[in-house]
Design brief:
Elements (H helix, E strand, L loop, with lengths): L2 H21 L7 H4 L5 H41 L6 H12 L5 H12 L4 H19 L13 H14 L7
Helix pairs in contact: 1-3, 1-7, 3-4, 3-6, 3-7, 4-5, 5-6, 6-7
């Protein structure tokens, strides 16, 4: 995932945020009809809920793109047998033992952690963000487990750090 894809997601997030704020403002042509009978506090609450949902969705998209980048890297390293201090070799061992049931956090990120210990902190942060993503996708009816705040800005910053630090491989 290149920076242009990340920038496009950020632009989308900004566009939706600004659009919601305009829609929920008295400057919106449909404001009086749409919000007729609601108190200002109710309108603010609905806007806040929509902004939070949009923020989480955009963070989710960033994490989905990061997941794809890590699986692409995994596939490239398995196929190309890159000389990278053991990471490609570890990935091929995972492929032999797990076949098509490779897991991002448990397999791919663990191999990164074992073979690139200098990246442990970022890998830990990324694992936490993926736990948030899994909660977002599958268990939003429960309260998220503590372990960090994952909003669009924090996930975007983490993704930028990951993409600038990790030598992720891409197919030509």
């Amino acid at each position: 995932m290149g920076s242009t894809a990340m920038e496009a997601i950020a632009e989308y997030q900004n566009d939706v945020d600004r659009s919601l704020r305009l829609y929920f403002s008295e400057a919106s042509p449909s404001f009086s009809k749409r919000f007729f009978g609601l108190r200002p506090g109710e309108i603010r609450k609905e806007l806040a809920d929509r902004l939070e949902e949009t923020d989480q969705r955009s963070a989710f998209v960033i994490l989905t793109r990061l997941e794809a980048a890590f699986f692409t890297d995994y596939e490239c390293r398995c196929r190309r047998k890159i000389k990278d201090g053991g990471l490609s070799k570890a990935f091929r061992a995972i492929r032999r033992s797990r076949k098509a049931k490779v897991k991002l956090v448990d397999d791919i990120l663990e191999a990164w952690k074992e073979n690139k210990p200098e990246l442990r902190r970022l890998i830990g942060d990324l694992s936490g963000a993926f736990h948030f993503r899994n909660w977002f996708a599958h268990r939003r009816y429960t309260e998220p487990k503590p372990g960090g705040k994952y909003d669009f800005d924090s996930v975007y910053g983490l993704a930028a750090s990951i993409l600038n630090t990790f030598p992720l491989q891409e197919f030509d």
